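URGENT: need a sanity check before tomorrow's submission.

F., can you look over the tryptophan--tRNA ligase record below? I want to be sure the sequence and structure line up before it goes out.
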Amino acid sequence: MSSQPTGKMHLGNYLGVIKNSVKLAKTTENFYFGIMDLHAYTSNKYSQSFIIEASATLLACGIPQKSLFVQSHNLVHANLSWFLSCLLSVNELNQMIQWKEKLKSGNVGNVGLFTYPILQAADILAYRATHVPIGEDQTQHMVLTRKLANKCRQFLDAPDYLPVPEAILSEIAKDPVSKMSKSDKSKNGCIFITDSPDLIRETVKRAKTDIGTKILYDPVKMPGVSNLMTILGGIKEMDLQSIELEYENLNRYDKFKDIVAELEYSRWMENKNEIEKILKINACDVTKIAMSTYLNLTNCYNTKFNK
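Structure tokens as predicted:
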């Protein structure tokens, strides 16, 4: 799995991807989580300081030290991306929904945005991933990744060497945090993972709710409280019915808004040298894996098509 170092990670990132990644790490021997800084160049938001901050946040959330790496520390990502781009047509990339939306908005952007899905596929296939936690907005990108995996398997001597990865979708279909405020553009609707418990409590208390006092899940008639229930369920790993039962006698929305998150973020930010050391060591390990994949793919391709 991966994350871009383009800004502070918010609660939506945690509920959508990080939480599932931490779960997967506990049950998977070979688990890798990349900070995909090359992708950040497409939006001109690259920052070295963001890499340290993103690393501290991910480690605090439970991503294992041995699994964390930075994309640009492993040049194989770019090499593999170029190789995979030679297996796709321009028309296949033109079908990507996010690219179509860019065209409709008139903000076409750069070539990097157009080929973005190929680099994303390389990020996954380089490590021969079997399962990838993603948010709902990445579903089509995973379809393309699976297509590329199948294209590669056609010329591999041992097709099973490269698995066709499965997506692990977030239980939360859309980011509920963005709906908390009366205006989606308002900062009132954003909870950053690194916020203090007091600030998180203050932000949640400003969130819109509904007329009444019942804690019931009804996205149509009670969108405000239903939203908070979704967030609470994601954090505490409770289903919506259990939340209704636990809080049925609460009768006050202000008490229900009292959500507090505590992380070890500050401890990691005080040890930046330790983070840099971890990333440097891990870069060597992941490069060996990715290079093995790249060489196997290109050698098999050359053998089959350049006899």
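My own read: The longest strand covers residues 131-134. Residues 177-263 form a domain with the Tyrosyl-Transfer RNA Synthetase fold (CATH 1.10.240.10). If you see anything odd, call me.
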